[in-house]
Amino acid sequence: KGCSHDTSWGFWELLQEKISDRGYHTCMWEFFSANLCRATLGELRGHIVAYHGEGHSPLAKLEVQDEWQTGDADWKWEVVYLHATSRRMFHTLYINYLSAGGLDGMTYCTPSGMAFKVNSTAMEHTDKFKPGIYLMDYPGSGLVTKILLRNFPIDEGLWS
């Protein structure tokens, strides 16, 4: 079945179509009355926020770790950990990708294979992670729960 939208559209046109299909007043689309540049993390938590990227402000910077073309889980973990624990700078958004896939020297390691190894190690070290966006394949309920409990320190029984 083909696409239901004009494939020559850019992101904005496609987003507008999806919003109009869904309706502006559904719970999926919540518009903030406050200036998003001044919104707190608490106001944004639980929402999907589209980030257009650098350029709109001379103050905004991105620091991204996305070494994804590897099958060496030990090396991948090293770059993830270095980025996760590096000193944070003002006006910088830190994005850390835990996912990867590639050759390990002899065989091809799939994204799920890498995720198993890297995410298992991340489970042991999330308490050392500094603020940032952490993106991962196949995180598993244990890692998700650990991250949620770090962000929302409440009774663990509520997450089970």
What does it look like?
This protein is α/β, with parallel strands linked by helices. The chain is 35% helix and 11% strand. The protein contains 5 helices and 5 strands, in the order ααβαβββαβα. It has helices at residues 11-22, 41-44, 73-85, 111-125, 140-151, and strands at residues 61-65, 92-97, 102-103, 108-109, 133-135. A 3-stranded parallel β-sheet has the order 1-2-5, with helices on one face. The longest helix has 15 residues, at 111-125. The chain is globular. The termini are far apart. Mean pLDDT is 77; it is low at 25-29.
Major β-sheet annotation? 3 strands, parallel
Mean pLDDT across every amino acid position: 77
Poorly predicted ranges: 25-29
Q: What sort of overall outline do the alpha carbons produce when their principal axes are compared? A: globular
Give the fraction of residues assigned to helices: 25-40%
Sheet with most strands: strand arrangement: 1-2-5
**What is the tally of beta strands?**
5
Radius of gyration from the alpha-carbon trace, in angstroms: 19 Å
**Count of helices?**
5
Distance between the termini: 39 Å
| Global structural class | alpha/beta
- Assess the beta-strand content as a share of residues: 5-15%
Task: Please trace the helix and strand order, writing H or E for each element.
Answer: HHEHEEEHEH
Provide the descriptors you would attach to this structure in a database record:
5 helices, two-stranded antiparallel sheet, alpha/beta, 160 residues, 35% helix
